[in-house]
Amino acid sequence: MGIVDPVRNPYMPGAGRKPAALVGRDDTLRSWDIALQRAERGVTDQPFVLYGLRGVGKTVLLTQLRHDAQARDWWVVQVEAGANRSLREMLGEGLYEPLSEISRPSAGRRVLRALKTALSFKASYDATGTWTFGADLSGIPGGGADSGVLDTDLRKIIKDVSLAAAEEGVGLAILIDEAQDLSTAELTTLAVVSQAAAQDNWPVLFALAGLPSLPQTLAEAKSYTERFQFNPVEKLSHEDAHAAIVRPAEQEGVSWDGAALENLVEASGR
């Protein structure tokens, strides 16, 4: 086999870092792409749930879902549960970037309404913080996402922002990593809001990633979560493990010795 120039070495392992060849996840990526297109046509699918042991690539796959949504110009929020932050705060801060990017004097009615609702949502968890979107929102209907009831407030902000995205010809994607760290009340609220979104076809897609216990935790939160799209993320097949190693090397004009390749596949645990 050849020798890889360390500068051109395609193997860059790291937590949540996309490998040089993302293989073995085609079914999930295909289903997500279909869901994006369906939402753009006015039909909202059930949330995606990625679950599996640590280290199998859930975060990598979740991030790829984000990239695929962004490639279609969707408004995207990706957050990681835990770190002593509430779901309310995580989503509120995550929504700021896409909303600030579309704020402009010529924005449509639904966009302006979403901006005003976002201001009220911000106030619901941060009484001292202020956002400035650079648009005159006086006289604009909206707000009401600061009741203090998570179900009510989250439903309001998700509805207004997703319908604003539709006004721009796209949708809203909300991706939550380490979802098993959310409280039971937060998971229940997500289930309720996603159900409302599916029933009324708001253009919003949810994707949750977490440990193998996540499906059971969701089922205990709300029985109808059994309709969610559950995607187990497991070890790669022997063939896919080969491809994950061989393809990046081939792109650099390097080949693997057969015995060395087998040793690496086995040592890595696929």
Structure description:
The chain contains nine helices and five strands. It is elongated, with a radius of gyration of 21 Å. The model has no long low-confidence stretch (mean pLDDT 88). The chain folds into two domains: 59 residues, no CATH class; 197 residues, P-loop containing nucleotide triphosphate hydrolases (Rossmann fold). Helix 1 runs parallel beside helix 2. Strands 2-3-4-1-5 form a five-stranded parallel β-sheet, sandwiched between helices. The longest helix is centred in the middle third of the chain and has 18 residues.
Can you lay out the helices and strands and say which pair or pack?
Elements lengths: L25 H15 L7 E4 L6 H14 L3 E6 L6 H16 L6 H17 L24 H18 L4 E6 L6 H17 L3 E7 L3 H8 L7 E4 L5 H14 L6 H11 L2
Parallel strand pairs: 1-4, 1-5, 2-3, 3-4
Helix pairs in contact: 1-2, 3-4, 4-5, 5-6
